[in-house]
Amino acid sequence: MNGSMKLGKIASLLALSSAEDEKEIYQIGADLGYKLYKGKVGSMDSTKIFAAVETAAKKEGLVKALYREEHAIYHSVLEAYNAICRGQLGLGNVLRSVGLVFSIVRGPRIPGDYEDGEWIAVALYGNMGAPIKGFEHEVIGLGINPV
């Protein structure tokens, strides 16, 4: 199974994982040369989602305070966010809220292939809908960019 565990798949599985499976995914990712992080964010304000993921990436050492690295994480979040919003970028201003689990994975695009440099993947998974309990549905998004 490990041979088929590329960057985006690890990020997606980590975001979707239960507490029991999370440890195994962290171990597989580390064995393949990836750095991983999983967190949570919820908001009606998209800037809080971007800030939560970017802050976690910096705090956990997944990106440095360099333009190209911050640019890579920003665009990975933007791609994943665009996917969960189905191309309609907006939450609170259109009365939508989200509760998300996010994962950040950094490493080679394909395990062991460092000739292509490092890449960063962001997966978002959770619920989106009207800010009323029970008026939401599942969403998932993935963004991958070179560092």
Description:
Homohexamer. One of its GO terms (molecular function) is RNA binding. The protein has one domain: Hut operon regulatory protein HutP (Hut operon positive regulatory protein HutP, 3-Layer(aba) Sandwich). The model has no long low-confidence stretch (mean pLDDT 91). The two termini are 26 Å apart. The chain has 147 residues and is an alpha+beta fold. It has four helices and four strands, in the order H-H-E-H-H-E-E-E. It is globular. The chain has a four-stranded antiparallel sheet with strand order 1-2-3-4, with helices on both faces. It has helices at residues 7-16, 19-31, 46-59, 67-84, and strands spanning 35-43, 97-108, 118-129, 136-146. Helices cover 37% and strands 30% of the residues.
Which structural class do you get from the secondary structure elements? Answer: alpha+beta
Estimate what percentage of residues fall within beta strands. Answer: 25-35%
Please tell me the total number of domains: 1
Question: Which value, in Å, is the CA radius of gyration?
Answer: 15 Å
Secondary-structure element string: HHEHHEEE
Average pLDDT: 91
For the record, what is the CATH homologous superfamily label? Hut operon regulatory protein HutP
Q: Would you report the number of β strands?
A: 4
Low-confidence stretches: none
Helix tally?
4
Please state the second-level CATH architecture.
Answer: 3-Layer(aba) Sandwich
Strand order of the largest sheet: 1-2-3-4
Q: What gap, in angstroms, lies between the N and C termini?
A: 26 Å
Fraction of residues in H or I helices: 25-40%
User: Which class in CATH terms?
Assistant: Alpha Beta
**CATH topology value:** Hut operon positive regulatory protein HutP
Structural shape: globular
Largest sheet: 4 strands, antiparallel
